[in-house]
Design brief:
Radius of gyration: 13 Å
Distance between the termini: 23 Å
Number of strands: 10
Number of helices: 0
Strand order of the largest sheet: 2-3-4-8
Order of helices and strands: EEEEEEEEEE
Strand content: over 45%
Shape: globular
Length: about 110
């Protein structure tokens, strides 16, 4: 079963930007790439570091701590030292609001 969680207005995440939101004390990073919003775990899968401190490059996100890159479509780790992908979460935009479709219970993250 899934639950729908309204996390932000679309106007809060302009194209080419990102925003960290909290759901059940879990950081989730919203990224607007060319008008398409993606949601992923907000903490690097290699070592605890908030990914909203990183930077966007093309279709990837780079963690500022050790420069691991992650694919924004799949969450896959593209560069070491990260090996585990980022957990990705389904996103729906309705009425100008960003809604996440999350599983019931704990939000899955890769650590």
């Amino acid at each position: 079963m899934t639950r729908r969680v309204d996390v932000a207005g679309l106007d809060e995440v302009a194209p080419g930007t990102m925003k960290m939101v909290q759901v059940d004390a879990t950081g989730i990073l919203l990224v607007n790439l060319a008008g398409r919003v993606r949601a992923m775990q907000g903490i690097c899968s290699h070592e605890y570091f908030e990914l909203d401190m990183g930077f966007l490059t093309g279709d990837s996100l780079t963690c500022a701590l050790h420069l691991s890159r992650f694919d924004l479509d799949t969450g896959e780790a593209l560069d070491p030292p990260a090996e585990l992908p980022l957990a990705m979460y389904p996103v729906v935009v309705e009425g100008g609001r960003i809604i996440l479709e999350l599983p019931e219970g704990p939000i899955p993250v890769n650590e």
